[in-house]
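[audit] Reproducing an earlier prediction to check determinism. Same input, same settings, fresh worker. If the C-alpha cells differ from the archived copy the diff job will pick it up downstream; this log only records the rerun itself.
[audit] input (466 residues):
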Amino acid sequence: MKIERMKSVRIGAGLGFYGDNWEPVAASIERGGVQFIASDHLAELTLAILQKDRQRDPALGYARDVVPMLLKLWPLMRERGVRFVCNAGGLNPRGAAQAVLAAFQAKGWQAKVAVVTGDDVLPRLQSAEAGFDHLFTHQGLASVRERLVFANAYVGAKPIVDALDAGADIVITGRVADAALFLGPLVQGLGWTLKDATTEQDLNRLAQGLTVGHLLECSGQGSGGNFGSQGAWQAIPDLAHIGYPIAEVHEDGTALITKAPDTGGRVNFDTVRQQLLYEVHNPHAYLSPDVVLDMGHITLHDEGHDRVRLTGARGSPPTDTLKVVAGFRDGYKAEVTWGFSWPDAWDKAQAAQATIRTLLKDKRIAHDELYVEYPGLNSAHGALAPLPKADALNQSNEIWTRLVLRTQDKAAADGFGRLFPWIGLSGPAYTCGFTGLHNTSELLGIWPTLIPRAEVEQGLRVELMS
C-alpha cells in the first residue's frame, strides 16, 4: 500500500497501566486533533497478574480492559481516522486481538488489527545452560529455571512501524518497551530512519521521539496527575476531568507537549520536568531498544496555556542486548490486618504480634518471613519512616497492624488465618475485626536479565487480522 508521510504528527497518551481510565483518551480524540493514540497497559509487574489469569484460563493472559476501551473509542477513532497502538496483548497478543475483533463483529464493525509477537523468550531461558544472570543480584538462572512461568523481552518500535505501514488501524503487542509504543507511530508517520539510524540527525530525532514517549507513557501523570511539588500540587485544576498529554512532533523532532482543550490537569515546566525524570536511573544514558537517550541537553520551554516545547534530546546507537522480564513461582503469602485502640494501643499491637510469633514457633509452621507493618505509620516508607517512641504511640487513637507470612508451603499459608480468631476474646483488647483471614496468594518472583537482541528480533512477527 502507498505510505503517506506527514510534516508533523499529533499523538495522544492512552492508559498508563492496566485498569487506568480511558475517558480522557476520548477527549484527546474528540478535541485534541490527534492522529495516533498509544496506550501502555503493562506496568513492571503486570505480566505476573496476566500469568495468573492465564493459569486459570489459557485463552487469557492479556489486559482485558482493551476490549471495553476500544468499544468506547473505536466510533470516535473511525470517524477521525485515528490509529491506536497498545501493548495490552501482554502474554497473549493474539488472544487480545481475537477478543477485540469478536466484540467488534458483534457490533457490525470492521477494523484492521495487527498483532506483534516474538517477545516471548521463555523457551530460550528454559533451555539455557548458562547466562541470563539476575541483572542486579547477579544470581545464576539455575536457581529459578525450573520455576519459570514467563519470560518476555522488551522489544522496540520496528514491528509497530511495520504494522502501521501494512495499514493496521489497531496494533496490539506484547512486551514492547513503554516509550517505543509512541516512537513507532512517530517513525512511521514522519518517515524517520530507525533500523539503520547511524547519523547524528537520525539518532537525535529518535531521542526526541523516545523522550516524547517517556513523557506520555504514564497517562495523567504527564499532565499534572500525581504531582508532588510541595505547595504547587494544590494548584493543579480539575483532576476529576484531567486531560492526558498530547505531543505534536515535527520532522526535525521538535515537540510540543500539550493536552486537549477544556480538560483538567496542567502541562507546564514543572509537571513535564517531573515526568521527564520519572523512573530514570541515568539521565545521560537512558537505555531503550531503539536509541540511548542523553537528557543532559534537553530544553523545556514553557509557552503557557498548557504548552511546553521540547528540544535538545541527543541519541546514540542502542546496545546489542534487550532487557527481559521473567517470572518464576516463588511460594505463597497470607496476610491478616487488625486494629487496636487507645489506651495502650501500641503495647497491645506488640503483644498480639508476639503471640502470633509464638504460635508459629510452637506449631512449627514453616515460613521464610513474617513481615509486619503499621498502616498509617510506616507502610509507605518502611525503614525511612522512624516510628515515634512507645509512650507517644500508646496515646494514639488507634494502631493498625498488618502481618504477612511468606512461605513455600501452601498449607502453611492457608492455615495462617486460623491462628487469629481466638485472639478476639483471649488476646489484647482490639477495636476492629480481622481482615484477610482466608486470603492465600501465590507469589511470582521477577527475574530481570539481558538477552542478545539478535536472538529476539529474528523471531518478531507482525500478523494482520480483520
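[audit] rerun output stored. Observation attached for the diff report: The first strand starts at residue 8 and ends at 13.
[audit] end
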